[in-house]
Amino acid sequence: MKYPNFKDLILFEDNDFIVINKPPFLASLDERGGSGETNVLRLAKQYSDDAQVCHRLDKETSGALIIAKNPEAYRHASMQFERRKVNKTYHAVVDGHVIFDQLLVDLPILNDGNKNVTIDRAEGKRAETIFDSLKFYKHYTLVECKPITGRMHQIRIHLATQRAAIVGDDMYKGKPVFLSSIKRGYKLTKGEEEQPIMKRFALHARHLVFKGLNDQDIVIDAPYPKDFATLIKLLDKFDA
């Protein structure tokens, strides 16, 4: 993978915080067992010595990610996450035509390590997400997801429980989108194997609001990366 120039990822920066638009396929932190591969934390530390990543996004998830430039900023952000004061909004493309209108999914999540997450009403930790349908296509829906808690895979597994798995999320039975399935008369050349429009699950951290050290709101909008934007463009064109 070609690693991005960290400066090019920055959406916001002041004396205390940097917010980046994390590209897909870049881990937020060192993976357990340390493979030594480049990640957001390593790139951030090259840019600012004391940088700390304040929360994490799944490796395949793109979008807004907060980085603290000093210990005080890190504590300040951590307290906001702990008290659920950070306002996070994600966009996801899901299978099917689903109508969500301020749907609250309140299903406890058990993380039994090894990236394995299940809904467990007895042992799981509280997990809540609010879902709203933003745009309907013939075969898919663009959904706004607002996690109130911050459990691992929370949005992904909560959507799967609503029979609305994120496209391309094979862990939760989400199927990839192929151009041949939405464009009439689409023909592959002989011997060519069709690739999905997006080579990952379609989840993007779109919007973020948190408070800086001066108690002023920092409001972030993270534009879609190229693959997500292409998927939306093709759905607009062929599946509307």
TrEMBL record:
One of its GO terms (biological process) is enzyme-directed rRNA pseudouridine synthesis. Residues 16-160 form the Pseudouridine synthase RsuA/RluA-like domain. InterPro entries: PsdUridine_synth_cat_dom_sf, PsdUridine_synth_RluA-like_CS, PsdUridine_synth_RsuA/RluA, RluA_PseudoU_synthase. It comes from the Bacteria. GO terms for molecular function: catalytic activity, acting on RNA; pseudouridine synthase activity; RNA binding. CDD domains: PseudoU_synth_RluA_like. Belongs to the pseudouridine synthase RluA family. This is 23S rRNA pseudouridine955/2504/2580 synthase.
